[in-house]
Amino acid sequence: MARSRMLARDASTDPQLNQISERAQLLYLLSLPHLDRDGLIDGRPQVLWAKAAILRIEMLDKAPSLIQEWVDIGLVIRYNGPDGPVLFFKGFRKHNSNLPYTKEEASKFPPPPGWTRTRQGLVPDDEEACFRLLNAFHSRSAYRSELVKRISPDLLASESRPTRNEDQVQDQVQDQVQDQVQDQVQDQHGGGGDHHTSDLFALLSKQENPIDTRELTETIRTAAADWMQALNWKNRQRYIDERNDTELYALISWLWLYKQRHKHEYMTQDGIYIDTEIRPDPFADIDKPVGYIRWNIAEGNQPELWTVELQALAQTLIPQKEALQ
């Protein structure tokens, strides 16, 4: 579990948080660092007190009534788990939008009613609730992608964004900071964006022994077959033979990303750490990578490779190209 959690600056003006008693508010705030990655905590009053406020002896007997204040005002949802009550802090993920979810220990509690646990965290079952959460997360957030999956295209296209308020202004500032950080990484590692076969061809054409389009296709086919064998991909040669050039490029890109999945960490010269919320690992928590790759290619999804990654892929393919000559 992380040693700290985020508390938004607008907590001082939050209507619900400021309608409860001072002691209830204090216990609530002291509990935040002890929440798991899903914003859940053991709801037994004595257990929660022992975790969050063990030196405040006067709160022990009052813990049940203080927690009840949270429930009554709507700050938390209380529900039954296998070992007793569980508390879900409803605003937890919104105020911890940069949470490195896949790096933290999994929750031992079941999800609360009306919520579903995904690879990137708890999401509401109600699509309207998912839509309201969107603005709290960066466009590149893996959690935001999970929300989008649960919103109908009609709602995404027709509904207007909620009116801007102080929360959203702060979210926009946070997005701008994240963009600046990513720009610093891209400046040092070389741009980003959606690359196509032509980019890979251009890089390989700059080698001492330039490559033509036919050689590029054969090089990709050979490398893909080798990398697919490592995944125990059945009928791999037939799968390769049935792919067009665009699908072959997507295939080799997905395979290369899988090979590099433990290396997606970047450090700028200023020492700013870029975690998987900025540069997500597409294979995080994927149990069946072959099925995942096949699904993405069938859907026409090509992974976005930064220039530094594209260059590394090209360098990886050079030995394969030379072997064919």
Q: Radius of gyration from the CA trace? A: 24 Å
- Work out the helix count: 14
Major beta-sheet overview: 3 strands, antiparallel
Q: How confident overall, as mean pLDDT?
A: 76
Low-confidence stretches: 159-198, 264-278, 321-325
Alpha-carbon distance between the two ends: 53 Å
| Strand-pairing-aware structural class | mainly alpha
Q: Got a strand count?
A: 7
Range of strand content: 5-15%
Total discrete domains: 2
- What sort of overall outline do the alpha carbons produce when their principal axes are compared? elongated
N-to-C series of helices and strands: HEHHEEHEEHHHHHHHHEEHH
Oligomer state equals single chain
**How much helix is in the residues?**
40-55%
Instruction: Order the strands across the largest sheet as they lie in space.
Output: 1-3-2
Key words describing this protein structure:
single chain, 325 residues, 3-stranded antiparallel beta sheet, elongated, mainly alpha, disordered C terminus, 47% helix
Give a short overview.
The chain has 325 residues and is mainly alpha-helical. The chain is built from 14 helices and 7 strands. The strands form 3 sheets. It has a 3-stranded antiparallel sheet.
